[in-house]
Design a protein that fits this description.
Blueprint lengths: L3 E6 L6 E8 L2 E6 L2 E4 L3 H6 L3 E4 L1 H12 L7
Antiparallel strand pairs: 1-2, 1-5, 2-3, 3-4
Length: 73
């Protein structure tokens, strides 16, 4: 299957808010460790909130979300 991968980024903090993909026009979002259907991604796409990314970049972002964050005391 060929997917179009996208991400939504907060303009101020540059934090990745969502990682998604489209396959044959059907939107999915990576949430809670799995890909789930998400219809609201159409709105984000139409409003210009999504940036196209490569599959490799999407996988890297997913791995970064899984890894524990260092906390500053």
């Amino acid at each position: 299957m060929t997917y179009q991968y996208v991400k939504a980024v907060d303009d101020e903090t540059q934090e990745v808010l969502a990682i998604g993909r489209f396959q044959s026009g059907l939107p999915e979002i990576y949430k809670d460790g799995e890909w789930k259907p998400e219809g609201y991604m159409y709105s984000w796409q139409m409003d210009g909130f999504l940036e196209n990314i490569t599959e490799a970049e999407a996988l890297k972002l997913i791995e970064e979300q899984k890894s524990p964050q260092l906390q500053v005391a």
